[in-house]
Amino acid sequence: MTRLGREFFARHTLLVARQLLGKRLVKLEDGCRLAGYIIEAEAYRGEEDLGCHAKAGRTPRTAVMYGPPGFLYVYFTYGMHWMLNIVTENEGFPAAVLVRAVFPSQGIARMAARRSSQPRRSWTDGPAKLCQAFEIDQRYNNTDACSQESQVFVENGLEIPDSSVTIGPRVGLYSVPEPWKSIPWRFRIQSVLAALQAQCVNSNSA
DNA sequence: AGCACGATTAACT
DNA sequence: GTTAATCGTGCTC
């Protein structure tokens, strides 16, 4: 399976966020391959977007979002959590997609070990949880997911029909002013089972 | 140098 | 539903 190339990410952030649903997030570790289908993603786009870190302009932290698409923006928050983003759009325009949840498909044992205090359903159903399960942290910030050498990247996966996708406001932007607080830039698969069934129907008819 | 805050989570009541 | 945990970042002095 081939990695998604830079052209995939060099598009409008809303389109990339939607298209990332069903794709596979992959991490190669020594002797182990972790993978999960992306089931939730959010778009953060431009300095005008007051929910986006780029609202502060180009700073040491946000510089990666101004760089080429396909790079990882991994940042730290609440004193303990890492968040995984993938930079989008053309170099010079700051934007990224936050990967908020995945459905584990490979490397289950290693995810289980890292999330052992929690039930299986809670292993990767939040942006910081999946980073913990995949052990993604500052080491991966500002790395190129489109490089053949990258240990973290995205592969093609399932086709997700619009009927399986719910769109709504982004999560956790408590003090962000409108319209950014409520703008519907969150995309998620409402039912993994329904998406798998849809995929099944597509394969049979193809 | 100090300060307020946060794209969250887990453990409470 | 509420709240503590915990520290890098960006802003102000």
Question: What is the gist of this entry?
Answer:
The chain has 206 residues and is α+β, with helices and mostly antiparallel strands.
Protein architecture, described:
The longest helix has 14 residues, at 192-205. The chain has one domain: Roll (3-methyladenine DNA Glycosylase, Chain A), CATH 3.10.300.10. Strands 1, 2, 3, 4, 5, 6, 7 and 8 form an 8-stranded antiparallel sheet that branches. The relative contact order is 0.22. 20% of the residues lie in helices and 28% in strands. By secondary structure, it is an alpha+beta fold. The mean pLDDT is 94. The protein binds a DNA duplex (13 and 13 nucleotides) through residues 42, 44, 51-53, 56, 59-61, 75-81, 83, 85, 98, 100, 117-118, 122, 126-129, 132, 170-176.
What keywords describe this structure?
3-methyladenine DNA Glycosylase, Chain A; alpha+beta; single chain; eight-stranded antiparallel β-sheet; DNA-binding; 20% helix; 5 helices; 206 residues
Count of domains: 1
For the record, what CATH class applies? Answer: Alpha Beta
Helix content: 10-25%
CATH architecture type: Roll
> How would a textbook summarize the main sheet?
8 strands, antiparallel
Count the E strands. Answer: 8
Which of globular, elongated, flat, extended, rod-shaped describes the shape? Answer: globular
Considering the protein shown, what is the CATH homologous superfamily?
Methylpurine-DNA glycosylase (MPG)
Oligomer: single chain
